[in-house]
Amino acid sequence: MQVKTLRLHKSWSQEQLAQLSGLNVRTIQRIEKGDSVGLETLKSLAAVFEIDVNDLKSQNNNEHELPNIQESTIKPSDLEEQKSLAKEKVQSVKHFYITLLASLGLFVFIFLPNYNQGENIGPLIVVAISFALMLGVYANTVFQPFGDKWEQKKIKQIMNEQGNNISKR
Questions:
Q1: What interhelical angle do 39-49 and 25-33 show, nearest 10?
Q2: Is 115 helix (H, G, I), strand (E, B) or coil?
Q3: Dihedral angle at the C-alpha atoms of 109, 114, 119, 125, nearest 10 degrees?
Q4: Is residue 165 part of a domain?
Q5: Are 96 and 149 within one domain?
Q6: ∠ CA 169-19-84, rounded to 5°
Q7: What is the pLDDT of residues 109-147, one digit of tens each?
Q8: How wide is the angle at C-alpha 10 spanned by C-alphas 6 and 13, nearest 5°?
Q9: pTM as predicted
Q10: Distance in Å from the first CA to the final CA of the chain
């Protein structure tokens, strides 16, 4: 079926597709097996795959029609690219933790000799806040909590909410 081909093309597991679409894993399994599908389910899947609902609906009705996407899941060049991107990500996370430890060590090195029973606590707090801000910005660039994946998830969530609101009218 088309859904399975689209899922495999994106190298997603059934669990990942279920999470992205907001559907149950069992529903994904039934769809891939060829069971009938409701319009809301098709809308969720179409949003995840970024295709028109009618295209997915026509593929659902014509299961024997060959999909446009190749059946092979990952080309060797794609695998190498994914491996390279994963390696870059791991190296950036490793560099962040090294920087974090070095910064903490430097702060302790500055803090201990300059504490003087609390006389210099104000400047030390400013230094601590400065370190925290710098590390926070750096962590944001490394871990990207509001990156592309977060945006896509929010877009799909809003689209699903809008679809539910329209169907309730």
A1: 100
A2: coil
A3: -40
A4: no
A5: yes
A6: 135
A7: 888 888 778 788 888 889 889 999 999 999 998 888 888
A8: 90
A9: 0.48
A10: 32
